[in-house]
Amino acid sequence: MLRPMYxxxxxxxxxxxxxxxLAAISFAESSFFPIPPDVMLAPMALAKPEKAYRFxxxxxxxxxLGGLFGYAIGYFLEPVGLWLLKxxxxxxxxxxxxxxxxxxxxxxxxxxxxxxxxxxxxTIASGLAHFNLGMFIFSCVVxxxxxxxxxxxxxxxxxxxxxxxxxxxxxxxxxxxVGVLVLGIVAIKFI
Length: 191
Known about the structure:
The protein is mainly alpha-helical. The chain is 82% helix and 0% strand.
């Protein structure tokens, strides 16, 4: 099952509209979509390493804009924001998160934006907590830019070795990625 998905994604990376799809996924992931843009960024950077930083820029801009959309959901549509958080298993932690944002604010966004924890949780909850919008935008640009540019750097630097590893051991790579995601989700429960 993974091999056809991987091959399909590599083919999409070579198509003329690949950057638009990457932007759409990056935008949506920051506000409501469950799949992170890394799923498309990595194969695109592997297919065209000379454009890795351009792809990282697209992910960063679209992710920040998507984050603003998530923030707006929480800020202006509180019942929808609470429903989405509850749907993701975090509806009961809003009071805790508001207190946490009052105390740690920018550090919460910076920390969670770099991890595999779904960024939409942070963006929607930041809107619900009425976190300072300027600080929110700044934090999103820093954390998402760092994440995507680091990914681009690593894939550009170690791309051939990474591509070979992925192609030879796709199931192992997928298991490790799922393990990291599960650990991130577990970490959310205890934070």
